[in-house]
Amino acid sequence: MQIVDVAWRVLDNGNYESGLQVWRQETETLDFVPITPGKHLNWSFRGPKRCIGSIDSTGKPVKCPEDSVMLRHGVRCGPCSALDFYDPCIRCDGRTCLGTEARKAQCDISDYVVYVVVFNDSTLKVGVSSKGRVRLRWIEQGADYGGIIKYITGGRKARRLEDRLSKRREITKAVRGERKIKGLQSTIDLKTAQKIVDDFIVGLESIELGTQVELEGLSKYYSLPSLDISPVPWRKRSDPIDQRPLVGDVIGMKGSLLVTGIGSSYTVVDLKQVIGYSLEGDADITMVTQSGLMDFF
Q: Could you tell me the pTM of the whole model?
């Protein structure tokens, strides 16, 4: 089975479950590999890295027809990237829309949120999400606190505001996995995180944003407990992924970071690294329920 993405989904009781979305050879529907604390993993990742396919205009995932090998960075080959309904949105800054006319029309009438998140190492990040999945977006990133800056109808308007805010010195639009790993044992309380955001908002001097962003703590949604021992990274950036094993008991997940344990030692892997690779092991598979288009944006 091929790894397509790291996934979190909302359960009926309001909690969140982490796992992997995968293609199985004999099916045309994405399946879900749950990653739950206590589960023993005996995984091996096999190369080469291949294209994960595209999303069509109905929100349906489509396998890459050529099963193309990815020789560079990225997760989609050129043809699948051109076909993907949402791919242009990833690079959007709100100035020029590169999407199809259908995507542009949908975007202009949809409700979005410009948000801010705070990580335990005091990193401040802004982003855009569809209104209905904003908390899920925070959890996917492994943020520790999240708050809504502004509700906006129209994706390009939201992206323009995000782009303007991200030019501030204290803000970032992306947090690398290595930085998240280093911050796993850092802690910050709600009061401190709120002050960081309040100082940022006051410094904007903009009447269009309002004056208050109320943060929500997110730690209760993750399965990863506080760590008393610093986990060892699963691999160095220069180490190959092909045929590399991952063995141990699941300690928990935070965003895309998976911590496993053997005895008293911990290992941490950013599962974003293995998207596109094949997974061999004893994983249990359950079906993903496909929902709305915006689940993929």
A: 0.90
